[in-house]
């Protein structure tokens, strides 16, 4: 993958967190715990992240994490609550912030590698990260595990991502869009059914 191939980065969150995010920015897990927020992450994954340290860097919970592609296993597991979920599109320029890290898969995995950003993007497999599906066509469990891990490749930003880097908000339906618009959240709110594993390409 080349930096030029990246259009935007993504952050998955609960819509009730938007007011705080547009005020405080996207915070790392450690800083977010100081505020009242609704966590949509998986507890078992956060347990792993809590004890993992980036080689030559900090604990994972001290980084705000973004995905290269939000249409991934994490979002797929949360679709039973898609009416309260949204995806923030973030300017890829954050990859150039000091201390930013690129991962070639889910950062909590023991198989994932970490690289300085943005040049670390050169080590990532764009075909796997942006693939429509991660299930292996031959039902090979090992290959499927690799694809699933790599689909969740991340960009890690120390401590926080300033709110000025948020470009737009994606949602799955009109009802969720209406809730956000009524709260007068700044920026465009766009329905993207494809992103949320529904019919349609946008």
Describe the structure.
The chain is α+β, with helices and mostly antiparallel strands and 202 residues long. The protein has one domain (3-191). It contains seven helices and ten strands. The strands form three sheets. A four-stranded mixed beta sheet has the order 1-4-9-10, covered by helices on one side. Helix 7 (174-182) links the parallel strand 9 and strand 10 (188-191). It is globular, with a radius of gyration of 16 Å. The two termini are 23 Å apart. The model has no long low-confidence stretch (mean pLDDT 91).
Task: Give a brief description.
The protein has helices at 18-24, 29-32, 43-50, 73-77, 126-129, 141-151, 174-182; strands at residues 9-14, 26-27, 63-67, 85-90, 101-103, 114-116, 154-158, 160-161, 166-171, 188-191. The mean pLDDT is 91. The chain starts with 8 loop residues before the first strand and ends in an 11-residue tail after the last strand.
Question: Within the largest sheet, what's the order of strands?
Answer: 1-4-9-10
Terminal-residue CA separation: 23 Å
**Class of secondary structure makeup:** alpha+beta
- The number of E-state strands comes to 10
Total domain modules: 1
């Amino acid at each position: 993958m080349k930096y030029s191939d990246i259009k935007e980065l993504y952050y998955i969150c609960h819509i009730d967190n938007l007011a705080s995010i547009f005020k405080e920015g996207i915070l790392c897990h450690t800083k977010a715990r100081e505020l009242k927020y609704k966590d949509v992450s998986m507890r078992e994954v956060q347990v792993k992240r809590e004890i993992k340290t980036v080689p030559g860097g900090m604990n994972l919970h001290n980084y705000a994490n973004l995905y290269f592609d939000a249409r991934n296993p994490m979002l797929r597991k949360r679709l039973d609550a898609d009416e309260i979920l949204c995806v923030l599109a973030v300017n890829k320029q954050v990859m150039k912030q000091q201390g930013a890290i690129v991962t070639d898969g889910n950062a909590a995995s023991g198989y994932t590698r970490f690289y300085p950003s943005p040049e670390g993007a050169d080590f990532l497999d764009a075909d796997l990260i942006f693939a429509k599906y991660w299930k292996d066509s031959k039902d090979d469990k090992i290959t499927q595990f690799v694809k699933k891990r790599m689909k969740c490749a991340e960009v890690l930003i120390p401590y926080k991502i300033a709110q000025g880097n948020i470009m737009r908000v994606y949602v799955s339906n009109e009802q969720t869009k209406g809730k956000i618009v009524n709260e007068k959240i700044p920026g465009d709110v766009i329905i993207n059914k494809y992103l949320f594993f529904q019919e349609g390409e946008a």
